User: Fold this.
Amino acid sequence: WPGFLVGSGLSWNTNTHWDYLHNSLAALLDTHVFGDRSGSLGQAVLELGHAETYMVRSSRDQPPADISDLPSHLGSTLYQLLVDPDNVTLDKLTIDHFSRATKHIKRSQACLMKARPDCSETVLQELSLTTDLMLTACKIGRSLVAAGVNPNSNMGLAVINLGVCNLPPTFRTDIANKLLALIEQYKGAWVQRHLPAGLQNSLVVLTSALRRFVPEDPS
Assistant:
């Protein structure tokens, strides 16, 4: 929605100042898209975008003013941590990066708690599910970074991705349980807005992620 709103607005007035868009986009979303009289839902959406973009930039060591390949054609860093965590490049990421992204996401959650939109309640459910998925991705990233920090920081990569299989079994179990709960939420959200026939294909990403985190039976 932010992209559609900005695009439609600029098509009417190409002289709109960029600073105005940055400062007013949340309020414009609340007024014209969500009908949120509390003035919270637009900011919730933007906070999620800030978290995603921040992590993409951080993973590339990309300057704030550089907008090249944003959003990433590969999908965001947090998305990749859910879809294919073993192949995410971590050498430019730190635990602090994930902590800052988590703060953005939790600010979004706080906004969602206050939101009173005129649009469908399904929007709130989907955004709540999105925040939970992003927080889960942050937990995965933090754990991978902690496990793969190079003790000889002056030699080679700062962080090596050792893969999910090298994370503590208790952590993997916790993530697997969280993903099971999120899959159930996802199913509920899907059937409210989409055809049931497409559910299984849509679930492939989450079910594949779940299989990665189920600890192997030592027997």
